């Protein structure tokens, strides 16, 4: 394709090189250019850069970007593609540029290498400069277009592409130079730190189609309510931890010149409507909406925790003030019922402590619990409304249990071979959207099938479900990662025999 592409007109070349994905228009336009170069002619080919570009294109499409995906660009096609990007962005837009492929630093400047870059040797740095794209120039072009937010991501920190046996290569040990002098409104991310190289894979058995950085970064971008700094920080930690498992040092870095926080997928977590309305225009609209945070009725309003068990629900109330008695009812009608007392003295009142809990049947419908109490002056406080949503309460309770019992997610057993049990995960599956595991790898790359949640009997494991996997006898470890119902992702836990 590259041979005849350079001979086409600008319009035809762009049409051939780009897959343009159109998404519904938003009030604040977002435009992305994603490039992946694998098929280099004169320097070593890459395996995953094109896949990385496609994955990032799909991710950004989900985030509401108009996405242009280009692959295997020679120098002319690269220039024409950047020109198309220039034409697509307008003042005030959010622009996202992603590049996967060979990159090279010369005298502190970073160059992105087209597929026809020459095989330069020592003293031929000018050949590389003339045949490549200066990364700083992309930032300048976006600044000239007066975009409001520029996000640039480089998964290009690979080995020195000019090293060849028997020659003295262009000086450089791989990796890119830091971008510390960025203009306002620019955020850049590098897949590895200065002078570090980025891993395509963790081992020969790593079948993930994406590089270690891109597979992580793309997933983190989709986390709701995370700003760019939080996405970059979490990506840095996860990638560095994975690289350490193969004794490699790769710590992604980011450079932030944003005035305000930027959220690509949802508003900040736990932010009410008033805050969202006052947010600066640079904060991108929520995709999807964040649940509203209920307003407290009073500063001393009680709160409740719900726990599901075989016999039904236990509801435990927490009161800010000492109480002489507690009563409750459901539905806003009927008589209030006393909770009674427990065999404990409250040191604040020197009287028996009111029972702070009640029991509800397993099939209790959604509704409002009204709670009131008698304070130490003998005055009635309340009633205070407490919303009971059985499905939401079950998911919240099981999520809390999973977080507190992470060491029990998996267990090994040797019985007619090597087995790994995930009974614990199955018992609390109502809080889980997806389970991914990795066998002898720190990257969970296989989906573990779980039975559907039964809200009537959530802890029961179906008789036809198999709560274990058979493993090869030589298996040493299994990693696991949970995606919860709300879309958040757990830490990757590794279980060893």
Q: What is the average per-residue confidence, as pLDDT, rounded to a whole number?
A: 81
Largest sheet: 7 strands, mixed
In spatial order, strands of the major sheet run: 1-3-2-4-8-9-10
Strands, total number: 26
Which segments are poorly predicted (pLDDT under 50) over 5 or more consecutive residues? Answer: 1-27, 165-171, 271-299
The fraction of residues in strands falls at 25-35%
The oligomeric state is: single chain
Radius of gyration: 28 Å
Helical fraction equals 10-25%
How would you classify the helix and strand content by structural class?
A: alpha+beta
Number of helices: 11
Distance between the termini: 50 Å
Shape: elongated
Written account of the structure:
This protein is of the alpha+beta class and 497 residues long. It is built from 11 helices and 26 strands. A 7-stranded mixed beta sheet has the order 1-3-2-4-8-9-10, with helices on both faces. A 4-stranded antiparallel beta sheet has the order 14-13-18-19, with no helix packed on it. Helix 3 (49-62) packs parallel to helix 7. The longest helix is centred in the middle third of the chain and has 17 residues, at 228-244.
């Amino acid at each position: 394709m590259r041979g005849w592409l350079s001979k086409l007109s600008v319009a035809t070349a762009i049409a051939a090189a780009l897959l343009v994905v159109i998404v519904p228009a938003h009030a604040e336009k977002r435009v992305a250019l994603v490039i992946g170069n694998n098929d280099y002619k004169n320097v070593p080919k890459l395996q995953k850069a094109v896949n990385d570009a496609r994955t990032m294109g799909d991710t950004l499409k989900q985030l509401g970007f108009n996405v242009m995906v280009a692959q295997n660009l020679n120098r002319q096609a690269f220039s024409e593609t950047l020109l198309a990007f220039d034409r697509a962005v307008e003042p005030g837009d959010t622009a996202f540029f992603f590049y996967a492929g060979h990159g090279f630093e010369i005298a502190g400047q970073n160059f992105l290498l087209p597929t026809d870059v020459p095989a330069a040797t020592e003293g031929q740095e000018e050949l590389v400069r003339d045949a490549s794209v200066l990364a700083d120039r992309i930032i300048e072009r976006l600044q000239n277009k007066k975009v409001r937010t520029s996000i640039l991501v480089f998964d290009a920190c690979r080995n020195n592409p000019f090293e060849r046996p028997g020659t003295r290569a262009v000086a450089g040990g791989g990796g890119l130079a830091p971008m510390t002098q960025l203009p306002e409104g620019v955020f850049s991310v590098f897949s590895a730190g200065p002078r570090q190289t980025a891993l395509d894979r963790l081992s020969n058995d790593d079948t993930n189609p994406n590089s270690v950085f891109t597979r992580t970064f793309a997933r983190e971008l989709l986390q709701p309510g995370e700003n760019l700094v939080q996405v970059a920080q979490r990506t840095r930690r996860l990638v560095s931890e994975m690289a350490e498992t193969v004794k490699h040092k790769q710590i992604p870095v980011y450079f932030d010149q944003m005035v305000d926080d930027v959220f690509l997928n949802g508003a900040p977590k736990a932010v009410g409507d008033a805050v969202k309305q006052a947010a600066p225009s640079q904060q991108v609209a929520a995709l999807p909406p964040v649940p509203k945070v209920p307003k407290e009725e009073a500063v001393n309003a009680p709160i409740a925790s719900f726990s599901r068990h075989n016999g039904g629900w236990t509801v435990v109330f927490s009161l800010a003030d000492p109480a002489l008695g507690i009563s409750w009812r459901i539905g806003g009608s009927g008589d209030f019922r006393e909770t009674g007392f427990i065999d404990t003295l409250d040191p604040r009142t020197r009287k028996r402590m009111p029972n702070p809990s009640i029991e509800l049947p397993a099939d209790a419908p959604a509704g409002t619990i009204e709670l009131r109490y008698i304070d130490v002056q003998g005055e009635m406080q309340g009633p205070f409304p407490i919303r009971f949503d059985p499905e939401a309460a079950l998911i919240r309770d099981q999520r809390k249990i999973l977080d507190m019992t992470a060491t029990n997610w998996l267990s090994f057993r040797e019985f007619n071979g090597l087995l790994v049990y995930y009974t614990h995960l199955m018992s609390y599956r109502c809080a889980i959207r997806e389970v991914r595991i990795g066998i002898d790898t720190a990257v969970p790359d296989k989906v573990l099938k779980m039975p559907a949640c039964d809200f009537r009997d959530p802890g029961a494991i179906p008789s036809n479900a198999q709560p274990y996997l058979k493993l090869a006898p030589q298996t040493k470890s299994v990693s696991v990662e949970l995606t919860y119902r709300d879309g958040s992702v757990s830490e990757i836990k590794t279980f060893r025999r």
